[in-house]
Amino acid sequence: MSTEVRVPTLGESVSEATVATWFKQPGDTVAVDEMLCELETDKVTVEVPSPVAGTLSEIVAAEGETVGVDALLAQISEGDAAPAPAAKKEEPKAAAAPAPAAASKDVEDAPSAKKLMAENNLSDVEGTGKDGRVMKGDVLNALSSSTPATSSAPRAPVAADQASREERVKMTRLRQTIAKRLKESQNTAAMLTTYNEVDMTEVMSLRNEYKDLFLKKHGVKLGFMSFFTKACIHALNEVPEVNAEIDGTDVVYKNYVNMGIAAGTPTGLVVPVLKDADQMSFAGIEKAIGEMGGKARDGKLSMADMQGGTFTISNGGVYGSLMSSPILNPPQSGILGMHKIQDRPMAINGEVVIRPMMYLALSYDHRIVDGKGAVTFLVRVKEALEDPRRLLMDL
């Protein structure tokens, strides 16, 4: 009896995927729910498990092939045929020797990581991805840490460089989608950016004062993102057009806030969404951000985790950025850019004092948000952060 393995439902607005990696080959035995292959969509990576136990008899869609929803991926033979390939593999003793090493690792490393490890003769790289999977960033970290220890290591890259000074690598579907959406955003929206700066003294003082009690009670660290999320929600209530979107000739105002928190991952930028963030406490926001951040790093974000955002916060400060102009995440009409906190001399009450300052940038769609509304929004964020008590008083 033969069972078909087909492309699962990929989620709202996603109609096709690319076959990224096959973890099994024809003739291999498979167990129920054992991972057969990995599909790469515009937004996330989707794992395809085996629906039955048996033998993988045929792979229909090869790696790199684009497939639609419900397309045929492979065929699995069930029943008595399942043990047959195992008997065949026992004949060549030498070929069977590496099997225990392969079996000891039940997850497949990222294709980009495997390629990089092969090029640099690396093995035993510790993985930080899902289920211990080795990601490209893990290999890069291993290379950077091992370079000083081996004097002969640079020879191989030199030889490779002489053979070819360029390398052409197909963009992942996620990277293609990022490029397409960002360019569409620039081409569609009348995007403009306004700037301000915020004195972080009070937020930093409040955080230092209560961080230990906060951690003890809620089991999560008190970070800056919850303050910025709360400040943005406060400002969005006063300037609702920043939380709206254009749909044809209509403006759709949202009476809720689904806060997108941009996060960098080894495969590209993703924006997980905190649903109904306006109903969350500081602790709830910090827990949700921690959970989404962990999912992003491990490649476990679902499409539902990244849909429905009404406003986005992007923190370039974690990478050392002092100032930038963030690009809108369509169809949203606003995105706040956070930056590095840096001590600067400021004139306070006629005296020059050193204060921890951060530049803020609000990029907005000028088709729906006027300059007055954008500036007002940013001023309200600044006021809330420089006097966090305003958040408690809803002022």
Automatic annotation (TrEMBL):
<comment type="similarity">
    <text>Belongs to the 2-oxoacid dehydrogenase family.</text>
</comment>
<feature type="domain" description="Peripheral subunit-binding (PSBD)">
    <location>
        <begin position="108"/>
        <end position="143"/>
    </location>
</feature>
<dbReference type="Pfam" id="PF00364">
    <property type="entry name" value="Biotin_lipoyl"/>
</dbReference>
<dbReference type="GO" id="GO:0033512">
    <property type="term" value="P:L-lysine catabolic process to acetyl-CoA via saccharopine"/>
</dbReference>
<dbReference type="GO" id="GO:0006099">
    <property type="term" value="P:tricarboxylic acid cycle"/>
</dbReference>
<comment type="subunit">
    <text>Forms a 24-polypeptide structural core with octahedral symmetry. Part of the 2-oxoglutarate dehydrogenase (OGDH) complex composed of E1 (2-oxoglutarate dehydrogenase), E2 (dihydrolipoamide succinyltransferase) and E3 (dihydrolipoamide dehydrogenase); the complex contains multiple copies of the three enzymatic components (E1, E2 and E3).</text>
</comment>
<comment type="function">
    <text>E2 component of the 2-oxoglutarate dehydrogenase (OGDH) complex which catalyzes the second step in the conversion of 2-oxoglutarate to succinyl-CoA and CO(2).</text>
</comment>
<keyword id="KW-0816">Tricarboxylic acid cycle</keyword>
<dbReference type="InterPro" id="IPR000089">
    <property type="entry name" value="Biotin_lipoyl"/>
</dbReference>
<dbReference type="InterPro" id="IPR001078">
    <property type="entry name" value="2-oxoacid_DH_actylTfrase"/>
</dbReference>
<keyword id="KW-0012">Acyltransferase</keyword>
<feature type="compositionally biased region" description="Low complexity">
    <location>
        <begin position="94"/>
        <end position="103"/>
    </location>
</feature>
<dbReference type="InterPro" id="IPR011053">
    <property type="entry name" value="Single_hybrid_motif"/>
</dbReference>
<dbReference type="Pfam" id="PF02817">
    <property type="entry name" value="E3_binding"/>
</dbReference>
<dbReference type="Pfam" id="PF00198">
    <property type="entry name" value="2-oxoacid_dh"/>
</dbReference>
<feature type="domain" description="Lipoyl-binding">
    <location>
        <begin position="2"/>
        <end position="77"/>
    </location>
</feature>
<feature type="region of interest" description="Disordered">
    <location>
        <begin position="82"/>
        <end position="111"/>
    </location>
</feature>
<keyword id="KW-0450">Lipoyl</keyword>
<comment type="pathway">
    <text>Amino-acid degradation; L-lysine degradation via saccharopine pathway; glutaryl-CoA from L-lysine: step 6/6.</text>
</comment>
<feature type="region of interest" description="Disordered">
    <location>
        <begin position="143"/>
        <end position="165"/>
    </location>
</feature>
<dbReference type="InterPro" id="IPR004167">
    <property type="entry name" value="PSBD"/>
</dbReference>
<keyword id="KW-0808">Transferase</keyword>
<protein>
    <recommendedName>
        <fullName>Dihydrolipoyllysine-residue succinyltransferase component of 2-oxoglutarate dehydrogenase complex</fullName>
        <ecNumber>2.3.1.61</ecNumber>
    </recommendedName>
</protein>
<feature type="compositionally biased region" description="Low complexity">
    <location>
        <begin position="144"/>
        <end position="160"/>
    </location>
</feature>
<dbReference type="InterPro" id="IPR023213">
    <property type="entry name" value="CAT-like_dom_sf"/>
</dbReference>
<dbReference type="GO" id="GO:0005829">
    <property type="term" value="C:cytosol"/>
</dbReference>
<dbReference type="InterPro" id="IPR006255">
    <property type="entry name" value="SucB"/>
</dbReference>
<dbReference type="InterPro" id="IPR050537">
    <property type="entry name" value="2-oxoacid_dehydrogenase"/>
</dbReference>
<dbReference type="GO" id="GO:0045252">
    <property type="term" value="C:oxoglutarate dehydrogenase complex"/>
</dbReference>
<dbReference type="GO" id="GO:0004149">
    <property type="term" value="F:dihydrolipoyllysine-residue succinyltransferase activity"/>
</dbReference>
<dbReference type="InterPro" id="IPR036625">
    <property type="entry name" value="E3-bd_dom_sf"/>
</dbReference>
